[in-house]
Design goal:
Chain B: This is ABC transporter permease. Chain B: Keywords: Cell membrane, Membrane, Transmembrane, Transmembrane helix, Transport. Chain B: Belongs to the binding-protein-dependent transport system permease family. The complex is a heterodimer. Chain A is an all-alpha fold. In chain A, 78% of the residues lie in helices and 0% in strands. In chain A, helix 10 runs parallel beside helix 11 (269-278) and helix 11 packs antiparallel against helix 12 (282-310). Chain A is globular, with a radius of gyration of 24 Å. The model of chain A has no long low-confidence stretch (mean pLDDT 82). By secondary structure, chain B is mainly alpha-helical. Chain B has helices spanning 4-7, 19-28, 30-36, 38-55, 57-60, 92-128, 130-144, 148-159, 163-189, 193-200, 205-213, 218-242, 255-261, 269-297. Chain B is globular, with a radius of gyration of 22 Å. Mean pLDDT of chain B is 80; it is low at 1-15 and 301-306. The chains are: A mainly alpha, B mainly alpha. The interface between A and B is large, with 64 and 52 residues.
């Protein structure tokens, strides 16, 4: 097993290199001009020699392979380079903004399982009952509502009806739990509900398929309690497609943090990424996008490994 | 935030009567169709209305979508402005209708581009096999290692903001799904006797691929493409909302909301409520329509998925 994990980790090195190359090509090779963004409408008034000096300062005038090598070196030092416009390194940015985003993602995952699984199970066990219809109605609804809109609506309702706004700025859990939770609950709930809709739908369809199988009939025939049949026999097999789905959903969740943080104005890593995109802060963009991809790959590795644990038929060598 | 396509990724059935015959048979009885797929038909009707409004935008709207009217700014809904006006005094209903032109065009074009190129790539990858297949798979794995929206953002910034940049960027994020689905169908088809007989009578490489294998992927292609439309709408809207999509003043459903939330202490509520409501309804319609198409072409799954 550990051999398998090692091999998979090793296997993802070329993928990671490929990711850096795609990011680099998109940002540096294709047109796009951070200096013009920096000076906005006055960009045309910059003298060519000043522009050349600024570009040299930002490291944009070096040959492309040199720029790429510089980035790999920045990753190697663990500092990830310096932001174009801000004084700090990307590592400091991640350390400052990251905890909020991690908290949102973890809360959202927990919420999605706590809500999605029971809803899916109940919906499958009481197929075509009123409960099932209500559950499916909300599932379909939450599959369609864009997260940023739900987020913005919550912000709006709290503001207009209760005159309430969550505290601004970065407040970490260990500094002031009460304030911190006020910041993160909104994004976590929005993302958690969206993901739980997928999980509920998959749980329902997967469980409906499994309970028609022979071995479930056997389990019932030998007199097991219904609870044991479902919880111990059916759910274990039904959970495989849900686990597969979770890998994909994590990508959706990572994308979601970017939009939802913007909607709630939460200064997490996602919002930092949006700010970097709007100001074309290449160094920040390339490292944050890489970070998001690394996390995504890591989670998918975990998903694959958890297969073996759930399904003894699958053996990795 | 519907990424339902990522979910409905089961291999589709392969051995079917021709898709055209199937469509004809289904279309014979409109009443049957409505009875069997009530939600799908409702979705289709709604989409038809939205598409008509978008195409006929200048005829059905009374205002200019981009003209700034500072005297009319920040109005709440009234008879003159059913959805109110935005910070620049532009009628939100008008902008939503014009925005539909861009948002729908982006969704349809990007899905057509991504899924079609992906499907042909997948067929080629399966049929050619060998190193081409292996390298294709590795390359697509790289693209699938990005969270989709993040990849779209990087690509849009790389290509340069604008309609085609957004279409291309969203298309590329949809491409691997097309490859995967078409490849899995093509892999199972290419070993069949009729393909072998085609080769035996001397059909060329291209002819076998395009005339004998590709048509078998059509059902899966249609199912995938319709499922992707809602996803594409949401990605476009998210890009617009984040301010990295199609730039103002051109309205899209996403960028209408963009500045309304961030950087404003108390948002003007109609700007938040109506564009998002439009997106939700349209995505719902696309999902219902897509589910019906899936059920129609994939009887195995019929009724199994809620």
């Amino acid at each position: 097993m550990s051999k398998y994990i090692l091999r998979r980790t090793f296997h993802s090195v070329p993928t990671l290199l490929g990711i850096t190359i795609i990011i680099f090509i998109a940002l540096r090779v294709m047109p796009g001009d951070p200096v013009s963004v920096m000076f906005g409408t006055q960009a045309t008034t910059i003298r060519p020699e000043d522009r050349a000096k600024i570009e040299a300062d930002l490291g944009l005038s070096a040959p492309l392979p040199v720029q790429y090598w510089k980035w790999l070196q920045d990753i190697g030092t663990g500092q990830f380079g310096k932001s174009f416009w801000r004084g700090d390194t990307v590592l400091q940015l991640i350390a400052q903004r990251g905890p909020l985003t991690v908290e949102i993602a973890v809360l959202a995952i927990v919420l999605s399982w706590v809500v999605g699984l029971p809803v899916g199970i109940l919906s499958a066990l009481r197929q075509n009952s009123l409960l099932d219809y209500i559950a499916r109605f909300f599932t379909v609804l939450f599959l369609a509502i864009p997260g940023f809109w739900l987020g913005a609506m919550i912000v709006l309702v709290l503001l207009l009806w209760w005159d309430y706004a969550p505290p601004l700025g970065v407040v970490n859990l260990w500094q002031n739990p009460a304030q911190n939770l006020q910041i993160v609950w909104g994004p976590a709930v929005v993302l958690g509900l969206a993901v739980s809709a997928y999980i509920a739908r998959m749980t329902r369809s997967s469980l409906l398929e499994i309970v028609r199988e022979e071995y479930i009939r056997t389990a019932r025939a030998k007199g097991l309690k219904e609870q044991a049949v479902i919880m111990k026999h059916a759910l274990r097999n039904a959970s495989l497609p849900i686990i597969t789905l979770s890998g994909v959903l994590f990508g959706f969740l990572l994308s979601g943090t970017v939009v939802v943080e913007q909607a709630f104005n939460v200064p997490g890593l996602g919002k930092a990424m949006v700010e970097a995109f709007v100001t074309l802060d290449y160094v920040v963009i390339q490292n944050l996008v890489l970070l998001y991809s690394v996390v995504f790959i890591g989670i998918n590795l975990l998903v694959d490994v958890s297969y073996a644990w759930l399904d003894p038929r699958i053996r990795y060598t | 935030m519907a990424q339902s396509s990522d979910v409905s990724m089961r291999p589709q059935m392969v051995f079917r009567p021709g898709v055209v015959a199937l469509v004809q048979r289904e279309l014979l009885g409109l009443a049957t169709l409505i009875r069997r797929y009530p939600l799908g038909c409702a979705g289709a009707v709604l989409l038809a209305i939205v598409i008509f409004l978008a195409l006929a935008a200048p005829l059905v709207t009374a205002y200019d979508p981009t003209q700034v009217q500072l005297r009319e700014r920040k109005q709440t809904p009234s008879w003159a402005h059913p959805m109110g006006t935005d910070y620049e005094g532009r009628d939100i209903l008008t902008r939503a209708i014009y925005g539909g032109r861009i948002s729908l065009a982006v969704a349809v074009l990007s899905v057509l581009l991504g899924t079609t190129v992906g499907a042909f790539w997948g067929v080629a990858s399966a049929y050619v096999g060998g190193r081409f297949d292996m390298h294709s798979q590795r390359l697509l794995e790289v693209f699938m290692s990005f969270p989709p929206l993040v990849l779209a953002m990087v690509l849009v910034v790389g290509i340069g903001a604008g309609l085609w940049a957004v279409v291309l960027a969203i298309g590329i994020t949809r491409l691997p799904f097309g490859v995967r689905v078409a490849r899995s169908v093509a892999l199972s088809v290419k070993e069949l006797a009729y393909v072998e007989s085609a080769r035996a009578i001397g059909a060329s490489y291209w002819r076998v691929m395009l005339r004998y294998i590709a048509p078998q992927c059509l059902a899966s292609y249609l199912v995938l493409a319709t499922a992707q439309l809602g996803v594409a709408i949401v990605i476009e809207a998210s890009l617009g909302f984040l301010g990295v999509g199609i730039p103002q003043p051109t309205p899209t459903w996403g960028n209408m909301m963009g500045g309304a939330v961030a950087n404003v202490l108390i948002p003007h509520w109609p700007i938040v409520v109506f564009p998002g409501l439009t997106i939700t309804i349209v995505v719902l319609a696309f999902n219902f329509f897509g589910d019906a198409v899936r059920d129609m072409f994939d009887p195995k799954l019929r009724g199994a998925l809620g």
